[in-house]
Design brief:
- There is one protein chain.
- This protein is of the alpha+beta class.
- The strands form two sheets. Strands 1-2 form a two-stranded antiparallel sheet. A two-stranded antiparallel ribbon has the order 3-4.
- The protein is rod-shaped, with a radius of gyration of 49 Å.
- The protein starts with a helix and ends with a strand.
Length: 122
């Protein structure tokens, strides 16, 4: 029974029975050319490349910078797709017809009563 158990525990080896002359039987094992999985030297674990961690760090830092910029911009600026402007607009309507010869004021200038705004050419 023990011989069968020993044979089952160690596959891919050949057993030879030897006798010592006093009635005791020994089992000698000869290793075959094919090494068993247990007898193969354990493969060393591959070290993870530090390049992987460097790239991951760069991506995380870039994501943090972009996220910070987006949030800080959103806190200080208002954006919309359908913007409208409210201002005081006063239309200037002519009472006479003609072409504009010169304009005496520029944008955002204050105008007093009686001040020349436009010179017309008849």
């Amino acid at each position: 029974m023990e011989e069968q158990a020993a044979a089952l525990e160690q596959p891919k080896t050949s057993n030879a029975r030897l006798s010592d002359g006093q009635g005791k039987v020994f089992i000698a094992q000869k290793a075959s050319n094919n090494k068993s999985v247990e007898q193969q030297p354990s493969e060393t674990k591959k070290k993870k490349s530090p390049l992987r961690f460097v790239i991951l760090g760069i991506v995380l830092i870039a994501g943090g910078i972009i996220g910070y910029n987006k949030i800080s911009f959103a806190l200080t600026h208002e954006t919309t797709d359908n913007a409208q402007i409210e201002t005081q607009i006063t239309p200037v309507l002519p009472r006479v017809s003609g072409y504009v010869k010169s304009i005496a004021i520029s944008d955002y200038d204050s105008v007093r009563t009686g001040q020349l705004v436009v010179e017309l050419d008849y």
